[in-house]
User: What shape does this take?
Amino acid sequence: MQNKRPTAVLLFGPPGVGKGTQGNLLNSIPGFKHVSTGEMFRSMDANGPLGRKVRGYTKQGNFVPDALTIQIFRAHIEDYVATGTFNPEDELLILDGIPRNAVQVEMITADMNVLKVVHLICRDEDKMIERIRLRAERENRADDAREEIVRHRFEVYREQSAPVLNCYTKDMIVDVPADGEPAEVLHGLLGLLIPIRQSAFGPGES
Assistant: This one.
């Protein structure tokens, strides 16, 4: 990867908690770059060799293996830098979907300077499942359309991803309620992230 380690914040939480929604909103604000492994996987050529491998896992509600995930992630970050869609000297990375487990935490340590883990919290699992169902209808995501696959994703999250929080010190983790409207959640996130970005890069453009 590039010489300078990008500065990053992890957007963390279970499926349907709103990571993608908030990440996309933040991506529209100068100084932030949202990177979602889910979007990276979906943007791949489904008929290409890597795309077929990825699809074989995601359609069952399982995680893509660590080595393959990191390979694809690093390639995308390098491409973002090369094409000018991400400037590590001025933009805070908002990572969504990576690291998904303790192994990936170790694997990205050499690549990323992680400053905070933003833990989005919604206690109502049925509400999150309904969000995913509506998204599946809206965006024609076949892997989100079957409830048994979605519920399996929650099981995988609890078993493999939730322990990621144990990999970071408590002062790095900030719990953010995600039950409200997207604009309300975004307001809380900006109150947290703008000072982090200013501390890392200095004041942004007015």
Notes: Residues 182-201 form the longest helix (20 residues).
